[in-house]
Specification:
The complex is a heterodimer of chains A (249) and B (386). With 249 residues, chain A is of the alpha/beta class. Chain A is 29% helix and 27% strand.
Chain lengths: 249, 386
């Protein structure tokens, strides 16, 4: 079974994100970048499927500027077999990425597509669902356990009320939740091998997709700083404040 | 001139950092508290390091090692240097001196060390022979096909855990233009042979869980086939293979200093006094600036020496400068880190006092700062002298 994994390059999770002074976005110049943690989980799951003999080939795909190749190398060092880099300098949005992925998927014909449930930069949580929608494939989002059963995939989903198990008909799209697995650190032999693994470069034009952003970002601002609280002396005072100041009771 | 890392080097740094954070750092507190690394923990770390291909990463690929070049290895050692010495030492980088193994020594010592089946330690220092190594009193007297060893070694790191010892002993005297001097031979000695006693040494302030021992040789007999290298050429073997170990010390100091800086920065950005974070006071912020600058300078020295090693142009003074500066930098940086933490910095639970204690040995072992200065100054002056 061929597995396709989408990986996104984002600001490293340990970096404190700063908003640009002109409010046009967040500062990315001279900032440490890394693979989106949910995408790491997606790659890890695919590699485990391959180790278990369920997956036969893992293709990692990333859409974006030249530096996305580094993120693809990380995926290759973790165990993906080859990479596809859809090169564009446009500021991609979920629908654009979903259309690009759809085109790559139609070309590659994988049985399973794994993406992160969201990227930690824009937290959109849309791409996986859009890909499934565009392809008309089954989807299992927020997966915390995956088991391939013949032509079906059993996915345990983390939903508001607890855990929900769904049975998907393959081919399918799955998005990963935090508890699906703990991604590995790359091994030295795999790092050395990663250099020799191929990364195919494609363009939106070649795929016949127009990923131009459909949404315009008007302004990015930092969330307001949390104000310090007040101390109350008695329960009566607390109730009075909740009723008359906060107006919540 | 290029300062950037290759993609592989970047991936390696990320991977080692992941390994250190997942497999080693969680046990730091335990090692500090108990002053030991449990045998089960040693086995676990070793197994995972072998599986990840980090074990013996310094050894050539054709011998089963990781085959890293010196720049990559230096980056790896830097990342390992961030955590407790006793823990990262388990991710063995077997001493390069084992590459001098010949004949069946290769199958008995070199390859098992690379595979993680056997662990070595080096025995040079004696109570009366520290920086003045050649004054060693441990003797190896030839009797037919054997050598009889007598004498005492001390400060022999890891001899409690190691399976065999690379021993240096005086095997005779030769006359030179400057008078007579001792000739040294190195031997491979299996622990547990008759005539060798291994005793735990006194407790050290630095590197808890990583112990040193006293080795007492009393009529200990070794077959001549245990000689590593050539008879009387022990220092040649050491000089050929051990030069770059000073670079290892230096780069680990850079890693540890980076950790100290990160801790101190976080503290300075959050700790409030006089109504503001202490990082807003110039007394604190300028300390951080100096720390960061010194770390960057040490890192450049270290990586430059590593790069020169790969080019085959490294000189003794390159290693000496890197070791001298990085170890002394670490002392200043960790001292400042403690100062920024104030009283809290002295508390074991905070972790910064460990970095400060561990820094102390680095200016002493693998050649004291004074010996490094001697090497650097000799390289300057000797060409000018008649």
């Amino acid at each position: 079974m061929k597995v396709l994994v989408a990986v996104k390059r984002v600001i490293d999770a340990n970096v404190k994100v700063r908003v640009k002074t002109d409010g046009s976005g967040v500062e990315t110049a001279n900032v440490k970048m890394a693979m989106n943690p949910f995408c790491e989980i997606a790659v890890e799951e695919a590699v485990r499927m391959k180790e278990a003999g369920v997956a036969t080939e893992i293709v990692a795909v990333s859409c974006g500027g030249a530096s996305c190749a580094e993120t693809l190398r990380t995926a290759l060092a973790m165990g993906a077999d080859r990479g596809i880099h859809v090169q564009t300098d446009l500021a991609l949005q979920p629908l654009g990425v979903a259309k690009l992925l759809k085109a790559v998927i139609e070309k590659e014909q994988p049985k399973l597509v794994i993406t992160g449930k969201q990227a930690i930069d824009d937290d959109s949580n849309q791409t996986g669902q859009m890909v499934a929608g565009l392809l008309g494939w089954a989807q299992g989002t927020f997966a915390s356990k995956l088991t391939v059963e013949g032509e079906q995939l059993r996915a345990k989903r983390e939903v508001d009320g607890g855990l929900e198990t769904v049975l998907l008909k393959l081919p399918a799209v799955v998005t990963t939740d935090l508890r699906l697995n703990e991604p590995r650190y790359a091994s030295l032999p795999n790092i050395m091998k990663a250099k020799k693994k191929p990364i195919e470069a494609l363009t939106p034009d070649a795929l016949g997709v127009d990923p131009t952003p459909r949404l315009t970002v008007l302004k990015v601002i930092e969330p307001p700083k949390r104000k310090s609280g007040t101390k109350v002396k008695t329960v009566a005072e607390l109730v009075e404040k909740l009723r008359n100041e906060a107006k919540v009771i | 001139m290029k300062f950037g890392l290759t993609t592989e080097q970047q991936l390696l740094v990320e991977a080692i950092r992941g390994f250190v954070e997942t497999e080693l750092m969680p046990y730091e507190e335990e090692v500090e508290r108990t002053d030991k690394v449990r045998p089960e923990l040693i086995a676990q770390i070793k197994e995972r390091a072998i599986r990840a291909g980090f074990y013996a990463a310094n050894m050539p690929e054709e011998l089963g090692g990781g085959g890293l070049d010196h720049v990559s290895l230096t980056l790896m050692e830097r990342e390992l240097g961030r955590t407790s010495f006793a823990l990262h030492y388990v991710v063995a980088r077997p001493s390069n001196i084992l590459r001098a193994c010949k004949g069946d020594q290769i199958e008995r010592y070199l390859l098992p060390a690379i595979r993680g089946e056997r662990v070595e330690c080096l025995a040079m220092t004696e109570p009366g022979a520290g920086s003045d190594l050649r004054s060693m009193k441990t003797r190896a007297v030839r009797q037919g096909d054997q050598y009889v060893i007598n004498g005492t070694k001390h400060f022999i790191s890891y001899a409690d855990v190691a399976d065999f010892i690379v021993l240096f002993a005086a095997s005779g005297e030769e006359s030179t233009a400057k008078g007579s001097r001792k000739m040294i031979t190195s031997f491979l000695v299996d622990k547990g042979i008759p005539g060798l006693e291994v005793r735990m040494g006194p407790k050290s302030v630095s590197h808890r869980g990583y112990h040193h021992c006293e080795l007492v040789f009393a009529d200990c007999r070794l077959p001549a086939s245990q000689i590593l290298g050539e008879e009387h050429r022990g220092f040649d073997v050491a000089n050929t293979w051990l030069g770059a170990t000073r670079l290892t010390v230096a780069t680990q100091c850079v890693g540890r200093a980076q950790r100290a800086l990160e801790m101190a920065t976080k503290w300075a950005a959050t700790r409030q006094q006089f109504g503001q974070t202490i990082g807003k006071f110039q007394g604190t912020s300028f300390k951080l600036a100096d720390m960061a600058t010194e770390i960057a300078a040490a890192e450049l020295l270290v990586l430059n020496a590593a790069w020169k090693t790969d080019q085959g142009t490294a000189m003794d003074q390159d290693y000496a400068m890197a070791k001298l500066y990085a170890t002394e930098m670490l002392a200043r940086v960790t001292d400042n880190a403690v100062q920024i933490f104030g009283g809290m910095g002295l508390m074991a639970e905070v972790g910064v006092e460990r970095l400060w204690r561990d820094a102390r040995v680095e200016r002493i072992w693998d050649g004291t700062s004074e010996i490094q200065r001697h090497i650097i100054s000799r390289a300057l002056l000797r060409p000018q002298e008649d």
